């Protein structure tokens, strides 16, 4: 029995040692990565110093050209948007970058599925896992899933969905972006089916809404001007799913520029590469419009 227990203990110590070494190695590689999505995330969390930040989902990444904003407002701008992510990730990013500095303006593109409506919130933790030990980040994990406090004890777990990305970005980074902006030069060559339910009942996510409110309060406390925006979506004619955001903006006095159903954009295929994302042509025209509205509130 004594020999058996010694073997068990030795095995556990070996697993712990391997886990710690794995975490140390990948923390080092992640921090040194200069390119790809890993390098971009490092920059957002640890190096941004721009006056204006764009935040939100893929619609933020593809719809807002920082160069136009910089040239028009005379304020440096960086696009911090992330594909398939919303307020849960973006609040975490803001908590990290605001430890260093406070941007003057944050323009936040709202996406209903990622910022307002009920859904699987665990998916939004992936990018933050390597930053789990940063101040204030662990509580976001607990609020989404209480079991995360046990899972994240393992360093391997923190990288279980990103270690190949970290390796690639450390040695052979791919992909370029222009101040975080990722335009598409494709044009939508098909006619998408756009189903709009005028009687739909939307279920809002209390956790997402609570983080939107925290985001507003933190920006106000730190002296950052927060502006919510909603860019065009092809053939859309109703925006009822965003009613909860209207209420929040009214409650906190937040500017909200809504172009979701803007007829100057939504019926023109030349501005889109799929039914929810604009291409470079559309993004340029739309950013120019947003800049004119930003000038009125800044």
Outline the fold blueprint.
Blueprint: H1 2-32, H2 36-46, E1 52-55, H3 58-63, H4 66-73, E2 77-79, H5 87-97, E3 105-109, H6 112-115, H7 138-144, H8 148-151, H9 155-158, H10 163-171, H11 206-221, E4 225-230, H12 243-252, E5 256-258, H13 280-297
Parallel strand pairs: 1-2, 1-3, 3-4, 4-5
Helix pairs in contact: 1-10, 2-10, 4-13, 5-11
Protein name: SGNH/GDSL hydrolase family protein
InterPro entries: SGNH_hydro_sf
Describe this structure in words.
The protein is an alpha/beta fold and 298 residues long. The chain has a single domain (2-297), classed as SGNH hydrolase (Rossmann fold, 3-Layer(aba) Sandwich), CATH 3.40.50. It has helices spanning 2-32, 36-46, 58-63, 66-73, 87-97, 112-115, 138-144, 148-151, 155-158, 163-171, 206-221, 243-252, 280-297, and strands at residues 52-55, 77-79, 105-109, 225-230, 256-258. Strands 2-1-3-4-5 form a 5-stranded parallel sheet, with helices on both faces. Helix 12 links the parallel strand 4 (225-230) and strand 5 (256-258). Helix 1 packs across helix 10, helix 2 (36-46) packs across helix 10 (163-171) and helix 4 (66-73) runs parallel beside helix 13. It is globular, with a radius of gyration of 21 Å. The chain starts with a helix and ends with a helix. The model has no long low-confidence stretch (mean pLDDT 95).
